[in-house]
Amino acid sequence: MKRATTQELKTFFESLGTDYDLRAPVKLHDGTRVLGGLDEGPLALEGGKIPQKPTSVFFPQFDEVFMVSKDGQFHAAEPVKKPIFVVGFTAQDLDCLEFIDKFFSENYRDDIYFNKRDGAVLVGVSGKCGKDGEFLKIAGGKCDIELISDGECFIVHPHTDKGKALVESLKASECGCGGVKMETLKEESDALPKDDEETIDKASELIRAGKVPDDFWNEIATRCIACTSCNLACPTCTCFEVYDREQDGKMVRQRIWDSCQLDGFMREASGHNPAGLQMQRTHRRIHHKLAADVERWGHRTCMLCGRCDDVCPTDIGIKSVCKEIVERYS
Ligand code: SF4
Ligand code: SF4
Q1: pTM strictly above 0.90
Q2: Atom 3 (ligand 1) nearest CA
Q3: Which atom belonging to ligand 1 lies closest to the Cα atom of 307?
């Protein structure tokens, strides 16, 4: 397996720019890390997960469904010009993407999503490149190429034939770090604490067993200010609403992310609202991922990426809520 420095990887990514629409973690002038083009800021592979919802590369906040031109002609959304090459998914992000691939393909195949997703190249990041040097779990698959940091440089591990073919063109020289063995990094990954998994699985069990009373949801709901940040950051949140907008004389139908934390989320045309109370909406946010989805998909659909806990201004992200559930009702 090749080892490459950040500079060598940057040169490699740049060389792919003619064939791919490249998105990689870059640092903006204000220090924020985002998935963007290499012309938007320096490549920033270190620092852990990207704060933004990484699945937005394939399911963006605003997306065109179709357009009707002035003469009444219908035009389907245009196919992407180049396949997407995205760098920076963590192991948890790859789990999230695996779920939404399933969500958007089961029963009904969502062409708008797969227009971007088909043909895409996924590059995961793991190892000693988390925030403040934190070790990021090694994914070991679910992506075409994985970049595993040993703290000095990256082991470039292709997981698919497509990844192998691409990595052949990567020019990597000896970086002088001595090269921590892959087995050593794997052992470190396997030894990462599993407390969060244990807590969320226990909370899921308690919710499904009916052990969490309405009073609890009422109490948590009083702390929600319906800012919707949790939904906007969550890589497995897939709800959207649809708007028709006039643009330059044409009518464009767009889909736009929705939030189950908003009062109007489930309100019906009659005025009836099955989730008219904040308590119902707070309950839904957690119950959906930890109980309803377990029934529907056979597993929870929170992959513990940590974004909702990072962004919630009142400390009721899913990990915090699960911790309270387990402390009170086990
Ligand atoms: S930790 Fe929060 S943001 Fe991340 S997958 Fe779970 S619910 Fe979504
Ligand atoms: S981020 Fe927190 S306060 Fe904002 S809507 Fe979500 S749970 Fe409520």
Answers
A1: yes
A2: 234
A3: 3
